[in-house]
Amino acid sequence: MSTPEHPSAESSPREEFASTGTGPADSDGDATRVVRAGLPEEEPYAPPLPGPVFAAHYHLPGDPAGAPYAYGRDSNPTWTGLERAIGELESPGDDRVETVAFASGMAAISAVLLSQSRPGSAVVLPDDGYNLLIPLRERLEGFGVEVRTAPTAADAQLERLDGASLLWIESPSNPGLDVCDIRRLAEAAHERGALVAVDNTLATPLGQRPLALGADFSVASGTKALTGHGDVLLGYVTCRDPELAASVRHWRKIVGAIPGPMEAWLAHRSLATLDVRTRRQAGNALAVAEALGARPEVTGVRHPGLPGDPAHEQAARQMHRFGCVVSFTLPDKDFAERFLAGLRLVDDATSFGGVRTTAERRGRWGGDAVPEGFIRMSVGVEDAADLVADVRRALDAAAG
Ligand SMILES: *Cc1c(COP(=O)(O)O)cnc(C)c1O
């Protein structure tokens, strides 16, 4: 913490992987781009997506300077393919964009916050963001960093920016689903010399492009909707400034928060369905949110795609699709537990973004400032009519 992270000597391996005739064109739509994202140049009799490379070290004769692959904690060809793919989706047609993959979303978040903070510097966090931002805040303060917080809604973080060096945005926020004006906040932060990072986990790169909205870093957990099958933990940081990318990459090397090659490969493989999954999920989430909104025992239904949601107008200005999460409140804890137990098609599980619908009572964790009957539901890719029927049936059963 006491020494600034300087861009490291190791080179980015992305040049070595650079393609090609198979890469997407700027004019291609999302569904077209995701099936080709990050693929290497076509080669006769080679697989379209090369399998995972398991290597702790690589053959390395002579001078290691500029070697794309030397040691397994620094770089791996399977990461390179995934990083290239995510970069293409976060910032299409952008040659300068660089992505650094991490072992988890928290590894990626910690890498940005810890590599870009110094003793005496000030960081602005949301006070309604991912619950591990709270222990991370304590850690930052222990290192002598001033941490300020404000809610995501109504761009309240604007008021805390004077003298800050880093603004952390989470929009939509998890689990409250509030949305802020990313462009407005980024401009205000830049005027004051602060860097801007956006947690893009909930939206995915197809739902929102933080770099185009002015952010310096787009950071996300790939554990959720990006990979979408509930079988991988992963995180990433995408940015455009090569020095920022190098400092985040160097942080990964120092702390060793690296993704396994198998996880990176599974993630890359699952990107091909990112368009169909997120499109279907957003449609299903809206149908479920509308059905919930019609029930008198359900209050506070939130989904950014819901016309009339407090966040809808701003979400519609900066998001391309509205995500899979619906949150709402049932009368009390027992009602909520009976509702969850009565669902047939909805697994009781944490996390979100998977192909199977899940839900949980957030109050069971004790970390979020939410009512006891607050439910976060992650809507999957099932048939909307089946999900809506299941939710209605479980509400009836819970009312008893
Ligand atoms: C899940 C989540 C994280 C943490 O990601 P992991 O992959 O679980 O470490 C960070 N931010 C948001 C918004 C999340 O939902």
Describe the structure.
The structure is a single chain. The protein has a 7-stranded mixed β-sheet, with helices on both faces. A 5-stranded mixed β-sheet has the order 8-9-12-11-10, covered by helices on one side. It has 2 domains: 7-271, Aspartate Aminotransferase, domain 2 (3-Layer(aba) Sandwich); 274-398, Aspartate Aminotransferase, domain 1, CATH 3.90.1150. β4 (166-170), α6 (182-191) and β5 (195-199) form a beta-alpha-beta unit. It has 400 residues and is α/β, with parallel strands linked by helices. α4 (105-115) packs across α8, α10 runs parallel beside α13 and α12 (333-342) crosses α13 (384-399). It has helices at 14-17, 30-36, 77-90, 105-115, 133-142, 182-191, 204-207, 242-255, 261-271, 274-293, 312-318, 333-342, 384-399; strands at residues 98-102, 122-126, 146-150, 166-170, 195-199, 217-221, 235-239, 299-302, 325-329, 347-348, 358-361, 374-378. It has 13 helices and 12 strands. Residues 1-12 and 14-21 have low confidence and may be disordered. The structure holds pyridoxal-5'-phosphate. Residues 1-11 have a biased composition (Polar residues). Its EC number is 4.4.1.1.
| Order of SSEs | HHHEHEHEEHEHEEHHHEHEHEEEH
The CATH topology of the largest domain is: Aspartate Aminotransferase, domain 2
By DSSP, the count of extended strands is 12
Q: Report the mean per-residue pLDDT as an integer.
A: 94
| Ligand names | pyridoxal-5'-phosphate
Using only C-alpha atoms, the radius of gyration works out to 21 Å
Strand fraction: 5-15%
Q: Which regions have little confidence, pLDDT < 50, spanning 5+ residues?
A: 1-12, 14-21
* CATH class label of the largest domain: Alpha Beta
InterPro entries: Cys/Met-Metab_PyrdxlP-dep_enz, PyrdxlP-dep_Trfase, PyrdxlP-dep_Trfase_major, PyrdxlP-dep_Trfase_small
GO molecular function, one term: pyridoxal phosphate binding
EC number: 4.4.1.1
Cofactor: pyridoxal 5'-phosphate
